[in-house]
Specification:
The protein has a domain of 77 residues. The protein is 75% helix and 0% strand. α6 packs antiparallel against α7. The chain is globular and about 95 Å long. The relative contact order is 0.05.
């Protein structure tokens, strides 16, 4: 291992099922030497990695034991994947075929390759199909009576596989380049390396019948490219249409969808965001309901669907200015957090969105409770630090809606300490800028307080071009809050008008 924390990060990334499988297997081989399992439990119980604590508990051979455990975990993850992953099964069948070939058991090689080929075609694994084709060529001399005709057939088959791979690689590369250009808000006219590929895209989009000639995974990537290109050109209706095609593509690759469900979720997310751009709110809700119908018996899939569907719902309520029963929504989220083992980053993201929604619904007590689920943790995780900072500021704003001066003063001191610990007290830092605006509000009453809320609204509006990487859209939330304080209008009504 190159980094001290590699083992910690590997364990943190494991699913609940993978950890259970490892524990069961480890108990079998560690009866006479339990230190590896003990080391695993010690690291698994850490919120923040602590090498010194491990050195005290394991004073001898810690580095060697960590390396051994790291390799053992990877092996168990591979073994676990064999039971559920088509890709793992394909590789296993190919490996078996190679070993059988060495032993001259050619008919058995054929059987293994046939099974591997069937699975690979089902998920569109063209790299595996290329390897299978190569092995079929090797054994054709020994197994096929009409050798010449069979070899020609395999060569034709290989050319088709290579074309599919070429399509996939070509449009995958372009989709990444376009995504980077889109994220960095680059002007397509000023990006020479994209000029040729973009001209080809425009030609394709003007001849829809040619889109069907692009094969398999290449077609999904092509739809993504066309959608991103339309987004960058400001044509959000066309972007939504191509993101729809991207999501519909998955219907033809159900096995691949089971294997790569997280990729499918990304495509659904892109489609939902495109619908927001054209105010197609009914279509947004349809996609959320469709996603919730994707549930199967896999707990990991259930957890991912719960996370994404809940986030999508909260964002839908926010975008449409819809006030829901926060208690009922909160209970469903609490139940899901207990039922599914979400990683810390996902957990913080969900809590953050719920806290912002509660704030915008002006249920400040609920907002405080959700914020404190993160900011009151004794050992704060080193994930989603920006979200943690945003929650701290949101918590402070909610406390300031109360009438108890002592509570507000304590909250201001607590927030300043928190920001100092997170090294965000630089003069040009947005978090300090907002904190000072809030701090100056404390002693004011009547007209002075109203005037300062006007200042908060104006300052937050004018600061849009000054600051970047602002946590939790706290700048926009602060604008709505200040406007609501000035006009007496509910925050959600203000959002609805926007």
């Amino acid at each position: 291992m190159k980094q001290k924390e590699d083992l910690f990060h590997l364990i943190q990334s494991m699913t609940k099922s993978e950890k259970r499988y490892f524990t069961i297997e480890a108990n079998k081989w560690s009866k006479n030497d339990t230190r590896y399992l003990e080391l695993y439990h010690q690291i698994n119980g850490m919120k923040v990695y602590d090498e010194e604590k491990l050195k005290q508990r394991f004073p001898r051979n810690l580095s060697t034991d960590k390396n051994y455990l790291y390799e053992a975990l990877l092996k168990n993850i591979r073994d676990f994947s064999r039971n559920s992953s088509c890709f793992a099964r394909i590789r296993e069948l190919i490996f078996d075929a190679k070993n059988l070939y060495k032993r001259g058991l050619y008919s058995q090689v054929e059987n293994r390759l046939a099974d591997a080929k069937s699975l690979a075609e089902e998920v569109g694994d063209h790299l595996a199909l290329l390897e299978i084709n190569r092995l079929e060529t090797f054994i054709s001399w020994y197994t096929n009576k009409d050798f010449i005709a069979h070899i020609k057939s395999l060569f034709q088959e290989r050319k088709l596989i290579e074309r599919k791979l070429q399509d996939e690689f070509q449009y995958t590369e372009l989709s990444y380049l376009l995504s980077i250009a889109f994220k960095k808000e680059m002007d397509l006219d000023d990006t020479p390396e994209l000029r040729g590929p973009l001209e080809s895209l425009e030609l394709l989009s003007s001849h829809p019948d040619q889109l069907d000639e692009v094969t398999d995974h290449g077609q999904r990537r092509l739809f993504q490219c066309l959608a991103i290109q339309a987004q960058m050109s400001g044509d959000h209706i066309t972007a939504a249409r191509y993101f729809e095609k991207t999501v519909d593509w998955w219907k033809g690759f159900k096995k691949y969808k089971e294997e790569e469900f997280s990729r499918y979720i990304v495509d659904v997310s892109n489609l939902i965001n495109a619908y927001y751009k054209i105010d197609a709110f009914e279509s947004v809700w349809e996609q959320i309901e469709r996603l919730e119908g994707e549930m199967n018996d896999d707990m990991e899939v259930k957890g991912l669907v719960f996370l994404k569907a809940t986030l999508f719902k909260i964002l839908f309520f926010m975008n449409t200015g819809s006030v829901q029963d926060l208690s009922a929504l909160g209970e469903r989220i609490e139940e899901g957090l207990k039922k599914f083992q979400l990683n810390e980053g996902s957990r913080i993201t969900l809590i953050s969105n719920m806290a912002v929604y509660c704030f915008c619904c002006q249920d400040f007590e609920q907002c405080i409770l959700w914020c404190e689920k993160v900011i009151k943790q004794r050992n704060k995780p080193e994930t989603r630090i920006k979200d943690q900072i945003g929650l701290q500021l949101l918590w402070l704003m909610s406390i300031m809606e109360g009438d108890v001066i002592e509570d507000i003063e304590n909250a201001l001191r607590s927030t300043r300490r928190f920001l100092k610990q997170r090294n965000v007290l630089e003069p040009d830092c947005f978090e300090l800028f907002l904190f000072n605006l809030l701090k100056d509000l404390l002693p004011l009453y009547g007209r002075e307080r109203t005037a300062h809320f006007k200042k908060i609204k104006d300052e937050l509006t004018d600061s849009e071009t000054i600051y970047q990487n602002i946590p939790l859209d706290i700048q926009e939330v602060g604008q709505y809050w200040a406007e609501s304080s000035l006009t007496g209008e509910p925050i959600m009504d203000i959002i609805r008008k926007k």
